[in-house]
Amino acid sequence: MKIAIIGGGISGLTLSWYLQKAGVAYDLFEADTHPGGNLRTWAAPGGYLLETGPNSLQLSPELEELLADLNLTSQIEDAAAVSQLRYVLRDGRYQALPGSPPALLTSGFFSLKAKWQLLKEFRQPAAPIDETETVAHFFRRRFGPEIVDYAVNPFMAGIYAGDPEKLLINKTFRQLPALEQAHGSVLRGLMKGGSSAGRRRIITLKNGVQTIADTLAAKLANYQPGTAVSAISRAADGSYQLELKGARGLEAAPGYSHLALALPAYAAAPLLELLFPAAATALAAVHYPPMSAVYSAYDRAAVAHPLNGFGALHPKAENAYAAGSVWTSSIYPQRVPAGQVLFTTFVGGTQYEDAARQPEAAQLAAVHAELTKFYGITGAPRWQGRYYWPRSIPQFDQAIVGAHAAAETLAAERVLAVANWRAGVSVPDCIRYARNTADLLAAGR
């Protein structure tokens, strides 16, 4: 058995690491000269340490074990305690979002009507399973429209770059329909089962999350950066052959029993066209909306808002320019110069695609204007910068159903999908899925 892994993001790196530990032969090919994919840390001019991808990570058991394996436990930095507070724009000002079902009932964030609908959810019977049900439809029928507009919508836009009217509940939050079916009430199910995931530590690493990718790459014996796979073919014995394009031009890499696609769906699709055209079509349909991360630094004295939280999200109903901002300097104060604050503002996603495609100068000006309006800022920014993702987070909408079905078909041909469009979009999801895949391969399955 020998595995060809295509793509050196966190999924491909993790899969390679656990195959290496298990003594399974592999080669990891990455077109870029740097590992990590979306895990990128930017040391910007002026003393700012920024993340262009995930700003923080939930410390899942799998991530914690991987960090220990890599001798990175001492590099873990917890988010500041204030980060437990989250804000949502409502009626033109930021209001603290209740952090638990009981708090939803006692806070003034939601109307009496919305609170009554929350209480009614305990007595609402489960509906038949509908694989096409969207996130918005699920929450609307169980909790009412206000919860969708001012809790679900901003969360999906800010975290998943998505639109809850399009994202599928069974693909995005599969555990919620399961709770409905098992307990008749989602809230009752959450109360009975607890919410351990919600209590996980929120962390980063001292020198940024890219440290994980860099450390993995340095420990891999068969990692080949700057080497793109330009074509795949199959030999008479059923083994896979790769055409490689690297520093030495075109080369062939024959004799792989399995392929692991640790690539975005749009990058995997062209490689599959000749051998598996139906799968290629399904993968090409997966939507990746554009997204910009805009960074804005100000003197602390110039910002009226206390910034006592993780950040603020913008419901679509408020007609804001951006999807929201993370208050980077509140979560990790050591990442900005003393006496300054820094906002990481997200422009784009499925609900804001036109804004995402604007020129950089227009985005920076629009973000500054909106921050000034909502945070009571005086004066110009100390510094602004932008990182643009033409294709950001894969959307778990109707198109992902076909992609997941294609992945099942490909698995029977010993072509395994291990990217975030298959595993789930979070880093802990990708690590868990890649490790499970490595275990299956090592066991000969």
TrEMBL record:
InterPro entries: Amino_oxidase, FAD/NAD-bd_sf, Protoporphyrinogen_oxidase, Zeta_carotene_desat/Oxidored. Its cofactor is FAD. It comes from the Bacteria. Residues 10-440 form the Amine oxidase domain. It holds the Pfam family Amino_oxidase. GO terms for molecular function: oxygen-dependent protoporphyrinogen oxidase activity. Pathway: Porphyrin-containing compound metabolism; protoheme biosynthesis. Involved in coproporphyrin-dependent heme b biosynthesis. Catalyzes the oxidation of coproporphyrinogen III to coproporphyrin III. PANTHER family: PROTOPORPHYRINOGEN OXIDASE. Belongs to the protoporphyrinogen/coproporphyrinogen oxidase family. Coproporphyrinogen III oxidase subfamily. This is Coproporphyrinogen III oxidase. It comes from Hymenobacter cyanobacteriorum.
